[in-house]
């Protein structure tokens, strides 16, 4: 079953390119530590999901590129075509000459309705190319104007037009000390609108990924390209094929559907985070060996101490003793707090994967009281290694880890709102104070729900 | 010629007849225990009871045997069986009084089983349910799905209250699974239209996976209007291949049988088990008289019930078979219906008189409103009448039908055009959706009423979909 990707804005398009590149390169990686037949099945599965076939045999990404400026899209198209191995469809992009000025309201109320038909037509064409549609993967940033405002508009329209298809929005959480002054307004408006029309929000924080680049990858001058490549690596390790069942060697047909069913069935809890281990520069890879036990131990501690990478993990954080409630209700001010999960999905790739023991993740203390580990925890496996990593593990979790960043953004936005700063930029284009208040209410509710786990 | 000497019945034959009859019954029912268990049950031995409880569960449950048994404890199965038997009118109180842990009551269970067997052609009905289907099928109605509500989901025994978040989680999971199934179903339709030889393995794998909920699902969704109607190219490619002239072409399953030897072997195995059960059913029909005589003895060994037992195992006339039973049942039903109608009429008259006495003498605007109501009700009734008459014309068939691509002008004796069936299903879907909207509106009104009750309270509704 196929996934149609919608790349929105500068951020969305740059990341989208890196994601397709990573997926393609991984699936055509020689070796992969498995038999030729297995490799071919893996390739075919990846191809069906993300690429379609064109006459001259070059795979075409199942994607629609949307931006209000030409520059980034043309760069993306040419980068893809230059590789010669895969490309974007010639007619799959939509751009204009005028940007959105980082104004959410402009993207949502002006660009959206004006270009709705063209954009939805492009998406429709891409959907028709699929034998079966698993769902949509929408890549956007939260803080800008096009990605966030137009992204919210497009997601809403997808909800109306394809109500039975699944939608996952991949959201880039801006730097805490970001450059855009109204990024907090844009963020809360985006999140509240997406919470209503999307099924899952997969979040990557710029701050966290930046640290990974600095500490783990040892990159001196970190550019957006480096950040995007790390992101793409993490997403690839989630979306590449895995076996459908324990003991089966057939690849899962609907990963998006299965992922959502396991992680986000509850309408109030839709925020997902990704962690990946090991993550390092390819030069160091050759000198490292790993065991499943070591990887899983680190991954588990990353989860419960809310660390985003395997360096600097706080090993003091422990799960609460069974039977006792966690030490007080979660307060967003406390530094070291145990990160309670609602549901977790661990994805293992590589050698001897069937011997990996995930028992530690089934500890009820990790989870909230109303969901048992048998329902809350799932593991997907494949023998086929991901890129050059002999063993790698990814964790997609629905947990409290995003509460603190969310609370911070809501707080800052509220302070600005209380003093009516920059509001005229939004009311000018039809976003009233009512809409802001609705957004605040919804997000406060989300924060409260997560805190009360 | 001489008189032919009558053969004396061999006593050894008589001794063998009963176990053979019971063995035949065992082979035809799903998950049935051995004849030895039956014998022990007559003497109320404890080891017989759990096996018989499980047998009754499988017999009464509409799901296939393997999936149902895994998720239910014996206790849950016992409780469910009791409730179903009670709702079907089983008269013996002793069964209801048996312990929930399923450790006793072999004899009562035997009587219950005999009661079920006597009421109707039970083995035949079960065989129809688990019939191996070889054709591409489409249901034309949802009677099967509605008539037998399955066992309830295994309950989570909570000491106190259940956390509503858990319920919301489960509800959401169900909705997502529904959407995933719809996507799978659309994929199957699309694949039937594409080049079949390369993709056929996907579609048959899907159909095995979807078989459980396929009936319910298909009832609500036919191929959406925006996709081109499935060309069923397999049907046109394989024209002339089928040995059955009236069908003319192969179905997806049959084509898969030819392509994939492993799948073919599995299908063959399933057909062989089904054949074995069919043969056992035939054998049972020949031998059941012996069983009924034995059941008489079982009933005799039971202690007398405080209330007179209103049930005796019926011995069907050999040869009359099942023909006599429906007639008798229909008569009984008719009498019941008449009695109910009489009761209803009396109740309505009494109610109406009381109401008129209570409200009579109101102003003209009230009378006008009443007249408007009467007109509306008359319109509704007329619409119902018309709708029923429309449907009466065609002999509406039930159950799933095999899809056949044909050049014939007129469908065969029992056939109907797929478009007609699709129309009927669409009409039903529209009807159900209207009902759903109405119920949702009622819920919203109720919520609004509740909101108004407590003035000091602020209600924050969940984010709307």
- Beta content of chain A: 15-25%
Task: Provide a count of the helices of chain A.
Answer: 15
Helix content of chain A: 40-55%
Compute the average pLDDT of chain A.
Answer: 90
Total strands of chain A: 12
Q: What is the distance, rounded to the nearest whole angstrom, between the alpha carbons of the first and last residues of chain A? A: 34 Å
**Care to count the β-strands of chain B?**
2
Overall 3D shape of chain A = globular
Read across the widest sheet of chain B, the strand sequence of neighbours is 1-2
Structural class of chain B: mainly alpha
Organism (chain B): Odocoileus virginianus (White-tailed deer)
Pfam family, one (chain B): TEDC1
InterPro entries (chain B): TEDC1, TEDC1_dom
Protein name (chain B): Tubulin epsilon and delta complex protein 1 isoform X2
Explained architecture:
The complex is a heterodimer of chains A (453) and B (465). With 453 residues, chain A is an alpha/beta fold. Chain A is 44% helix and 16% strand. Chain A contains 15 helices and twelve strands. Chain A has helices spanning 9-27, 36-50, 70-83, 104-128, 146-161, 183-197, 206-216, 224-239, 255-263, 282-285, 292-304, 373-376, 403-418, 423-427, 433-451, and strands at residues 2-8, 51-52, 60-61, 63-67, 93-95, 133-141, 166-173, 200-205, 271-277, 341-350, 377-382, 391-399. In chain A, strands 5-4-1-6-7-8-9-12-10-11 form a ten-stranded mixed beta sheet, sandwiched between helices. In chain A, strands 2-3 form a two-stranded antiparallel ribbon. The model of chain A has no long low-confidence stretch (mean pLDDT 90). Chain B is an all-alpha fold and 465 residues long. Chain B is built from 17 helices and two strands. Chain B has a two-stranded antiparallel sheet with strand order 1-2. In chain B, helix 3 (48-60) crosses helix 5 (74-87) and helix 7 crosses helix 14. Residues 198-231, 308-313 and 315-321 of chain B have low confidence and may be disordered. Chains A and B meet through strand 6, helix 9 and helix 15 of A and helix 10 of B. Chain B: InterPro entries: TEDC1 (IPR043535), TEDC1_dom (IPR027996). Chain B: Pfam families: TEDC1. Chain B: This is Tubulin epsilon and delta complex protein 1 isoform X2. Chain B: It comes from Odocoileus virginianus (White-tailed deer). Chain B: Residues 89-194, 232-300 form the Tubulin epsilon and delta complex protein domain.
């Amino acid at each position: 079953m196929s996934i149609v990707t919608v790349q929105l804005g500068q951020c969305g398009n740059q990341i989208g390119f890196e994601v397709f590149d990573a997926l393609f390169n991984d699936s055509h990686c020689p070796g992969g530590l498995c038999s030729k037949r297995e490799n071919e099945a893996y390739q075919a599965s990846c191809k069906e999901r993300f690429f379609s076939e064109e006459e001259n045999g070059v795979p075409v990404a199942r994607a629609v590129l949307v931006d209000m400026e030409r520059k980034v899209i043309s760069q993306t198209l040419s980068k893809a075509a230059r590789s010669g191995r895969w490309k974007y469809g010639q007619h799959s992009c939509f751009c204009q000459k005028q940007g959105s000025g980082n104004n959410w309201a402009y993207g949502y109320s002006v660009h959206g309705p004006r270009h709705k038909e063209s954009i939805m037509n492009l998406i429709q064409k891409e959907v028709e190319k699929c034998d079966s549609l698993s769902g949509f993967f929408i890549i956007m940033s939260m803080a800008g104007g096009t990605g966030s405002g137009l992204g919210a508009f497009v997601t809403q329209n997808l909800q109306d037009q394809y109500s039975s298809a699944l939608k996952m929005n991949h959201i880039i959480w801006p730097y805490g000390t970001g450059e855009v002054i109204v990024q907090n307004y844009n963020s809360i408006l985006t999140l509240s609108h997406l919470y209503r029309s999307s099924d899952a929000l997969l979040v990557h924080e710029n701050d966290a990924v930046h640290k990974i680049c600095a500490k783990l990858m040892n990159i001196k001058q970190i550019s957006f390209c480096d950040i995007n490549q790390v992101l793409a690596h993490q997403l690839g390790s989630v979306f590449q094929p895995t076996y459908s069942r324990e003991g089966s060697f057939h690849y899962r047909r609907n990963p998006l559907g299965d992922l959502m069913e396991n992680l986000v069935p509850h309408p109030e809890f839709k925020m997902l985070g990704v962690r990946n281990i090991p993550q390092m520069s390819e030069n160091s890879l050759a000198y490292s060996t790993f065991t499943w036990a070591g990887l899983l131990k680190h991954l588990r501690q990353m989860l419960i101490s809310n660390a985003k990478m395997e360096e600097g993990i706080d090993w003091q954080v422990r799960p609460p003793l069974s039977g006792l409630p966690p030490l007080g209700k979660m307060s967003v001010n406390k530094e070291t707090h145990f990160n309670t999960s609602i549901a977790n999905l661990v994805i293992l790739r590589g050698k001897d994967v069937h011997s990996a023991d995930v028992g530690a993740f089934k500890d009820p203390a990790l989870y909230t009281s109303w969901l048992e580990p048998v329902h809350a925890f799932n593991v997907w496996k494949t023998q086929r290694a991901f890129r050059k990593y002999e063993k790698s593990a990814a964790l997609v979790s629905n947990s409290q880890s995003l509460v603190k960043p969310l609370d911070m953004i809501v707080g800052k936005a509220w302070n600005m709102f209380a003093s009516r700063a920059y509001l005229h930029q939004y009311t000018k284009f039809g976003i009233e104070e009512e809409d802001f208040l609705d957004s605040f209410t919804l997000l406060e509710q989300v924060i409260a729900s997560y805190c009360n786990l | 010629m001489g008189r032919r000497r009558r053969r004396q019945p061999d006593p050894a034959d008589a001794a063998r007849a009963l176990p053979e009859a019971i063995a035949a019954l065992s082979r035809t029912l799903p998950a049935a225990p051995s004849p030895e268990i039956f014998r022990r049950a007559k003497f109320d031995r404890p080891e017989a009871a759990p096996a018989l409880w499980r047998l009754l569960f499988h017999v009464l449950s509409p799901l296939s045997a393997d999936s149902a048994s895994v998720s239910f404890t014996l206790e849950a199965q016992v409780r469910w069986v009791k409730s179903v038997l009670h709702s079907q009118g089983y008269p013996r109180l002793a069964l209801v009084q048996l312990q929930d842990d399923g450790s006793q009551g072999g004899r009562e269970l035997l009587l219950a089983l005999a009661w079920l067997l006597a009421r109707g052609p039970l083995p035949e009905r079960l065989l129809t349910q688990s019939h191996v289907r070889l054709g591409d099928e489409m249901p034309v109605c949802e009677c099967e799905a509605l008539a037998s509500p399955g066992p309830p989901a295994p309950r989570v025994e909570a000491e106190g209250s259940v956390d509503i978040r858990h319920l919301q989680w489960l509800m959401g999971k169900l909705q997502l699974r529904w959407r995933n199934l719809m996507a799978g179903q659309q994929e199957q339709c699309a694949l039937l239209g594409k080049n079949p030889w390369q993709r056929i393995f996907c579609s048959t794998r899907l159909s095995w996976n979807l078989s459980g909920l396929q009936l319910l699902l298909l009832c609500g969704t036919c191929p959406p209007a925006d996709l081109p109607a499935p060309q069923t190219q397999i049907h046109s490619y394989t024209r002339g291949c089928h040995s059955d002239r009236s069908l003319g072409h192969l179905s997806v399953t049959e084509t898969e049988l030819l392509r994939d030897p492993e799948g073919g072997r599995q299908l063959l195995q399933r057909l062989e088990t089904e054949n074995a059960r069919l043969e056992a059913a035939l054998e049972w029909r020949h031998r059941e008289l012996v069983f009924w005589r034995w059941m008489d003895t079982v009933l005799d060994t039971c202690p007398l019930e405080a209330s007179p037992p209103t049930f005796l195992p019926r011995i069907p006339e050999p040869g009359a078979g099942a023909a006599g039973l429906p007639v008798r049942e229909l008569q009984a039903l008719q009498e019941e219906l008449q009695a109910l109608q009489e009761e209803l009429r009396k109740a309505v008259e009494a109610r109406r008189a009381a109401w008129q006495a209570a409200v009579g003498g109101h102003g003209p605007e009230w009378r006008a409103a009443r007249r408007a109501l009467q007109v509306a009700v008359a319109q509704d009734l007329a619409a119902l009448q018309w709708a029923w008459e429309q449907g009466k014309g065609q002999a509406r068939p039930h159950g799933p039908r095999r899809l056949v691509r044909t050049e014939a002008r007129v469908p065969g004796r029992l056939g109907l055009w797929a478009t007609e069936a699709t129309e009927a299903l669409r009409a039903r879907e529209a009807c159900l959706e209207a009902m759903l909207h109405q119920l949702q509106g009622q819920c919203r009104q109720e919520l609004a009423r509740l909101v108004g009750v407590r003035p000091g309270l602020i209600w924050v509704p969940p984010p709307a979909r």
